[in-house]
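Supplementary Note 2. Why include the ligand at all?

Several targets in our set were suspected to adopt different conformations when bound, so apo predictions alone were not considered sufficient. For every target with a known small-molecule partner we therefore ran a joint prediction. The input for zinc ion is given below.
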Amino acid sequence: MKERCIYCGSEGIIKKGKRKNKYKIFQQYHCKNCRKIFVLKPLKNKTYNVKIILDSLNFYNQGYSLKISADGKIKELLGYSKDISFYDWVIVCSYYSIFHSTQALLGTKRIKINNRLHYATLIAFAKQFIINKELEEELFLIYEDAEEKARELLEIFEKEKEKRGKFQYHRLSRSNIEPAKKSIENAKMFLDSIEKVLANKKII
Ligand SMILES: [Zn+2]
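The joint prediction is reproduced in token form.
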């Protein structure tokens, strides 16, 4: 992967002097886009800088991630390089909304699964609501094609879980607008159904 500016994500960085600590000498870089100087530290867990994370979540909440990813002017205004996109975050956040709404559904049965256990959540969802056709029963009150719908929801969970694993921590280029759009669609469908079920159970 090409090295990028740790502040704005631009690939337009050049080597500029060295910095050293007690143990090691680090190559310093200068970003031609935001003009900041930094060192690329080897990270154990890949991570983003806080600004990108917060901005991404913010954009997402406002439904802007997708739009901003393709809008050079806004990116310029926010001090981002024009080749940066947030499609990975659209996919990750879409998945999280599916994941958390499933946890809410499991909560109606007083089933609590640790927030980090994604696979366990998927299995519990399948076991508690799909295999025993309970979700289908609930969905039957709302949708004509309840059986298909229940199956679709499980498929969405599985698919988006896999996608999130694949896309998280990867800056995605413009060509990934389609999977990002699909994730939003899936998440909307999923959330909408779960919301209706919870409303029918008079939980929300
Ligand atoms: Zn920069």
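Confidence is low (pLDDT under 50) at residues 43-47. The two ends are 45 Å apart (CA to CA). Comparable summaries for the other entries are listed in the accompanying table.
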